[in-house]
């Protein structure tokens, strides 16, 4: 995973700092839009959240069967403290063997994950997501992206992201199309400041 965790970016490893920073960028509004327009949850939906962070997405979800994985023990501990009775949380990589005895999911989330992964790692995650989805299941992703004629401030902020594999939309789409037969996407700005996102929905 290509990620910078030195200098000022290191403080984002603290769950409180991370969530505060996200809130200042308008993350709550962005999550509401993402849930309503892309995740489209319903009671009982089975959701796998790869790279769940502090699992704040749960604030905007109904009573779902939620499984969250993250590499940061501090993030996972914070998620358990806040939402322990609303989901299953585990620190570590999500691998096929981890989910072999778990029922298939309606939706897999990878929110802000792909831009931390190189192409091979991304294809591995996409394949895993496809394997653990129900026949009509979907993968939903969101990542910073570059676009032509991008707002200069947005480009600067995206270039300063901890993830070191920020791509153009076509690059994200092409990787997903190698695994999924139906790939839809949209360039959007879900924050109150200029910050360009690529949102993608993938189905088998």
Structural class: alpha/beta
Supply the number of helical segments: 6
The shape is globular
- Under the CATH scheme, the architecture is 3-Layer(aba) Sandwich
Can you identify the CATH class? Alpha Beta
How much of the sequence lies in strands comes to: 15-25%
Overall mean pLDDT:
88
User: Count of DSSP E strands?
Assistant: 7
Q: Into which percent range does the helicity of residues fall? A: 25-40%
What is the spatial order of strands in the main beta sheet? 3-2-1-4-5-7-6
Strand/helix succession: HHEEHEEHEHHEE
Low-confidence stretches: 2-12
Largest sheet: 7 strands, mixed
CATH topology: Rossmann fold
Q: Domain count, please report it.
A: 1
Radius of gyration: 16 Å
CATH superfamily, by name, is: Vaccinia Virus protein VP39
The rounded distance between the terminal residues' Cα atoms is 26 Å
Q: Would you mind describing this structure in some detail?
A:
The chain is α/β, with parallel strands linked by helices and 204 residues long. It has helices spanning 15-24, 27-39, 73-83, 119-131, 152-159, 169-177; strands at 46-50, 65-70, 87-91, 105-111, 133-144, 182-188, 197-203. The chain has a seven-stranded mixed beta sheet, with helices on both faces. It starts with 14 loop residues before the first helix and ends with a strand. Residues 2-12 have low confidence and may be disordered.
